[in-house]
Amino acid sequence: MDYIKRELERKFLTMNEVFKAIMVTGARQVGKSTMLKKLAESEDRAYVNLDNSRDRELAKNDPGLFFQVYKPPILIDEAQKAPELFEYIKVLCDESDQAGLFWLTGSESKKLLKQARDSLAGRICILKMYSLSQREKAGKCDLGEIGFSYAALSERSGEFPLNDLPAVYSHIWEGGMPATIGMTAEQRMEYYESYIETYLMRDAVDDNGISDTEGFRKVLRASASFAGNLVNYSDIAQAGNVSVPTAKDWIKILQSMGIIYLLEPFSNNELKRMIKTPKLYFCDTGLCAYLSMWTSRDTLMNGAASGHFYENYVVSELLRMYAYSKSKTNMTFYRDTNQKEIDIVLEENGTLHPLEIKRSSNPEKKAIRSFHLLEKSSLKIGEGGIICMADKPFPLDANNSIIPCNII
After folding, report:
1. Phi, psi dihedrals of residue 279, rounded to the nearest 5°
2. 3-state DSSP call for residue 110?
3. What top-level class would CATH report for the domain 8-128?
4. pLDDT of 30-47, one tens digit each?
5. Calpha distance 178→185 (Å, rounded)
6. Which residues contact 282 (CB under 8 A, 6 or more apart)?
7. The pTM is what?
8. 352 phi and psi, to 5 degrees?
9. Helix or strand or coil: residue 213?
């Protein structure tokens, strides 16, 4: 399979100019090593994979000798398997003025991030990678983040074909794991089954100390049924036949593993009566579809959960975009105790951009009537709109537009 250019490349190379060590984290098999190997092709950089038992034992037992064998600049895969290296990396960073000495990959875990931050404070940049976005699949990863003015939307729309429901649901159902590109439906189902057993369950036991793997598997499957909904820990606990505190802990572990994403509710000192429960989304919709037992694109597209999967898809595309962007953007959702809701609230540079998500190709303007609730927040309200199945952007009013989902 040909290499697919990743959106994270730009940010990684930018950080590589100033940081001595860079770690790329994320769920298993999302393409971390592949991207870094591609970027390393043009330079003389040592490579070692700590999945190799001989190299792992050397790294753990004699880090000093390890770095005599593998001299920087170096790419170390699965760095979490030998945290003993971090103290030596710190010393080597302090002895050199050269940026980009250490490229590290690690499957996402709180333990790994804490070890890296504690040992390499001020020396390391940690970047997160997700599975393939629709933009990466389409070869459009150089467009950058979206602007929500009608003019910006219209210009961006020219880079994409017309919106198409089956094409959108193909992306949703197939997901973005690089290894699944070009697979048949049967092959993809076996891939996800193997992914769960080989990686997720092993990491649950080895990295997180979970002994009840059957209960954890049930909680994972139950989580898929809550995609696009407020988290209900009681129902998830019941499905896994575990206690509510255990269910909460396991949801946090799934989040730390890069499998699910919890979208936090918008909060502001000026706004009262806001709910505090997050909404649950899967980082990869293909894994979610497999766990939910949707065996084809069409059954998913026409099924009862199609709207929730569509919302999950939009949120996960935005999540990727802002993880790789130049500026920091905070993504939340608005919901108060009166059930008034705004699907997405983006906060950037003191400005709020409200967004609704509708599967319709012709959503009604009343879908944005909750946007005015943000006026009480004392922050500026910027452009927003309705992300939907429309073919082209269209202005709803001076601030808001119809936004085709395939251009985000």
Report:
1. -105, 145
2. helix
3. alpha beta
4. 999 999 999 999 889 999
5. 15
6. 223, 224, 227, 259, 260, 261, 288, 312, 316
7. 0.94
8. -100, 135
9. helix
